[in-house]
């Protein structure tokens, strides 16, 4: 009775798991659970191919399915869509080490330039060239444009405030507004910080063109580029065995943006970005075996202080020291309670986590330190945030979710709150009316 509302019936590795109602669970006779757990049996089938999943869903055999970008062309206006925000932030991370980039050129031996990522102006131009709104609409299944290191799923004081979302604080908004140089106040285009923040798109083709031309001139002067030379940038975009349709669409969009933003510059028609896949993509990046990766960072939703430190201190999230800067050497000065304090960014990241100088400081101080670290990271244009993943779920006409509003703690209510519009027999009768599949458009 201590094992919960369901018990395992059968398990077939890589094929199927079946659960059934556990009659001995105390909750079925507890008034606190009245009306909950109406599901009697759960069958989880392992179906790796997305097209097969969608086919079974339309035939009424599956109760929900996560859609991809191609599916959204058909179902974007469906009444049965549910959106799930996640902590995942996707970004383009550049190898900025000139020696490693030259080594990649030598290894390729095709005469193409691969060293542009060593120039901060090129990376900045790249960022301004990307139309994040268009990218998310046409290259993802409902994800959202992202401008900062942390998205709206990070809670800085969850034990005391269920609404303590870092991205919604003034100090976090100011980071983004400052990064893009947007002014606000009396006599300005935007009256308030919120107005300025809402205006951010990260997209400015004219600024990107100016920066591209500037870095073109600098690279010519430095002897790192020959006029007319082709530029080829490999971006490892997946750890899977092959690139899916969504990643191929994203590759095409990035090439489209860069082509448009380099018109009229020395780089016009010269830059090609090629997406590839590798099961060791992060090690490949760390070891200097690629020019770029489409990196994904996530986790620690309830501890943004820890999450920001992962970009600087440990793991695959951190940009390797040889790529641009040494986190133990770069110093940052922050004014705390009227006192200007200087530490390396490594020490600042440590300071707001377990054992750190400010781990027990006020929320305001910890947010200040975290925001300064975020500002440093995005201002370097080494790791450029592109989009924040939002999964789109299409749910069956058979079921009624507990809520149509996603909550990171309860999701949509799950099995506990799910109810049904049809019994199994009624559903079988309904499905039989649509031999070619049920319509959800």
Brief sketch in words of this structure:
The chain is an alpha+beta fold and 441 residues long. The chain contains 15 helices and 14 strands.
Protein described:
With 441 residues, the chain is of the alpha+beta class. Helix content is 33%, strand content 20%. It has 15 helices and 14 strands. Strands 4, 5, 6, 7, 8, 9 and 12 form a seven-stranded mixed β-sheet that branches. Helix 4 packs antiparallel against helix 8 (205-222) and helix 6 (170-179) packs parallel to helix 13. The longest helix has 18 residues, at 205-222. The protein is globular. The two termini are 43 Å apart.
Secondary structure blueprint with pairings:
Layout: E1 6-12, E2 16-21, E3 41-45, H1 50-58, E4 64-66, H2 69-75, E5 81-94, H3 98-108, H4 120-129, H5 132-139, E6 144-145, H6 170-179, H7 193-198, H8 205-222, E7 231-238, H9 245-261, E8 271-277, H10 281-286, E9 292-297, H11 304-310, E10 331-336, E11 339-344, H12 345-351, H13 363-379, E12 383-395, E13 399-400, H14 414-417, E14 419-420, H15 424-432
Parallel strand pairs: 7-8, 7-9
Antiparallel strand pairs: 1-2, 2-3, 4-12, 5-9, 5-12, 6-12, 10-11, 13-14
């Amino acid at each position: 009775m201590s094992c919960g509302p369901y018990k395992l019936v059968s398990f077939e590795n890589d094929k199927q798991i079946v659960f059934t109602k556990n009659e001995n669970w105390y909750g079925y006779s507890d008034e606190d659970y009245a009306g909950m757990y109406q599901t009697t049996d759960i069958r989880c089938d392992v179906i790796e191919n997305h097209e097969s999943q969608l086919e079974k869903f339309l035939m009424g055999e599956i109760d929900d399915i996560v859609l991809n970008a191609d599916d959204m062309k058909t179902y974007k206006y469906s009444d049965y869509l549910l959106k799930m925000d996640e902590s995942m932030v996707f970004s383009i991370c550049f190898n900025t080490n000139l020696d490693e980039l030259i080594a990649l050129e030598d290894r390729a031996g095709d005469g193409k330039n691969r060293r542009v990522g060593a120039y901060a102006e090129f990376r900045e131009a790249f960022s301004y060239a990307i139309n994040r709104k268009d990218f998310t609409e046409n290259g993802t299944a409902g994800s959202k444009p992202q401008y900062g290191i942390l998205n709206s799923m990070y809670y800085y004081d969850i034990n005391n405030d269920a609404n303590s979302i870092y991205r919604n604080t003034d100090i976090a908004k100011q980071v983004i507004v400052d990064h893009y140089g947007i002014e606000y106040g009396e006599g300005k285009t935007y009256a308030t910080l919120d107005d300025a923040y809402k205006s951010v798109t990260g997209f400015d083709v004219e600024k990107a063109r100016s920066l591209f031309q500037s870095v073109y001139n600098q690279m010519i002067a430095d002897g790192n580029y020959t006029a007319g030379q082709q530029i080829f940038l490999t971006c490892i975009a997946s750890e899977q065995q092959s690139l899916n349709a969504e990643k191929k669409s994203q590759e095409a969009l990035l090439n489209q943006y860069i082509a448009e933003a380099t018109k009229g510059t020395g780089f016009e028609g010269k830059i090609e970005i090629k997406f590839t896949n590798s099961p060791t993509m992060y090690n490949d990046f760390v070891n200097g075996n690629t020019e770029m990766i489409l990196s994904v960072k996530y986790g620690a939703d309830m501890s943004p202080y820890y999450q920001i430190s992962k970009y600087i201190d440990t793991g695959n999230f951190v940009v390797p020291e040889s790529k641009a800067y040494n986190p133990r050497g770069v110093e940052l000065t922050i004014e705390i309670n009227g006192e200007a304090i200087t530490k390396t960014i490594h020490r600042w990241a440590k300071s707001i986590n377990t054992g750190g100088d400010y781990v027990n400081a006020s929320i305001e101080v910890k947010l200040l330190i975290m925001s300064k670290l975020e500002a440093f990271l995005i201002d370097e244009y080494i790791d450029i945030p592109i989009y924040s993943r939002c999964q789109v779920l299409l749910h069956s006409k058979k079921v009624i979710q507990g809520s149509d509003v996603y909550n990171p703690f309860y999701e949509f209510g799950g099995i506990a709150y799910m109810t049904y519009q049809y019994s199994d027999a009624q559903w079988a009768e309904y499905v039989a009316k649509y031999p070619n599949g049920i319509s959800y458009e």
